[in-house]
Write a structure and sequence with these properties.
Strand content: under 5%
Number of helices: 10
Number of domains: 1
Shape: rod-shaped
Helix content: over 70%
Structural class: mainly alpha
Distance between the termini: 100 Å
Number of strands: 0
Length: about 240
Amino acid sequence: MDSMIKWFQDGGFFMYPIAAMFVLGVAIIAERLHKILRVYNVDAAGLMQQVQRLVLENNVDEAVKVCNSRPMASVCRVFKAALVNADRPHDEIQDHVEVATLAVVPELQRRMPYLFTIANVATLMGLLGTIVGLIKTFEAVGAVEGSQKQMLLAAGISTAMNTTALGLIVAIPCMLCYGFLFNRINSIVDEMEHYSARLLILLRTGREYFENFSAGFFVNAKPTTEKTSKTDNAP
């Protein structure tokens, strides 16, 4: 612990703002992980199955209650926007879904640019601290005798590199978490768009679409075969 404290103090002034960025980055990562993985996320496929069953049973109110069980989940909010307006024309339902989507996506992306900026600025401040430390080191070397220059130069360069090391220690986890969270956000948005489109079609066409959807849109060719056989056997 003492060696870490000495290493931090030897880095100079720039170690303190980089450390502050580290604390801020950890706070943003913890908050975003909680929101994206737990609060905004939901089993979209399972939710779609429940809502589909209830809508086909003409029990839209119960489907709304299912969405209210996870009121902050992104897919639930978009589904609810469609279900509470299910008695309106299809174009109006689609408009409500689009408005809900436009409200949800910025919440998913909130504070993500700050995380990316922290990673970049921490790296740049680390480099700046190293450059400032090297400048001071070379100025000090010029004022001492030749026998002490090599020792002073080596110690000064070692100390100056501390800020670059700390900057990278802050930047690398921030960038990794940014990439992970960004992919999770894209996955949630893709699920939201996919299942909201299915819900819109369900509200518009009812059972007929989902029977075709579950069957893979294959058409039974048996009647055509029988007709052809009768034609071939005709005199």
